[in-house]
């Protein structure tokens, strides 16, 4: 009898923990930051492009990724940091 009561308590605690952690997914979605959303969109685009498989051409994959990649990265800033002082010598 005592063992069944303990197991019922343990199951109840486990169920309450699960509901607390995963019960309200909308509340979790509100807590996603802007940088995390960029990564999520980039990952989704990469996965969708990979799912095209080998039957797709390079141009098809390029067109599918171009918009997401260009929105995800600031290539001007990346180049400026990468080139350092040489950036200012460029025309």
Give me the secondary-structure topology.
Elements: H1 2-22, H2 25-30, H3 34-51, H4 58-72, H5 75-83
Helix pairs in contact: 3-4
Summarize the structure.
With 91 residues, this protein is an all-alpha fold.
Task: Describe the protein.
The protein is an all-alpha fold and 91 residues long. The chain contains 5 helices and no strands. It has helices at 2-22, 25-30, 34-51, 58-72, 75-83. Helix 3 runs antiparallel to helix 4.
Quick tags:
91 residues; mainly alpha; 76% helix
What is the strand content?
A: under 5%
What is the helix/strand order? HHHHH
Unreliable runs, pLDDT <50, ≥5 residues? Answer: none
Main structural class: mainly alpha
What characterizes the major β-sheet? none
Query: How large is the count of helical segments?
Result: 5
């Amino acid at each position: 009898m005592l063992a069944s009561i303990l197991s019922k308590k343990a199951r109840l605690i486990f169920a309450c923990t699960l509901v607390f952690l995963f019960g309200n997914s909308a509340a979790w979605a509100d807590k996603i930051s802007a940088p995390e959303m960029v990564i999520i969109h980039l990952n989704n685009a990469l996965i969708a492009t990979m799912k095209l498989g080998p039957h797709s051409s390079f141009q098809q994959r390029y067109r599918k990724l171009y918009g997401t990649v260009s929105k995800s990265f600031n290539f001007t800033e990346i180049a400026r940091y990468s080139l350092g002082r040489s950036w200012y010598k460029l025309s």
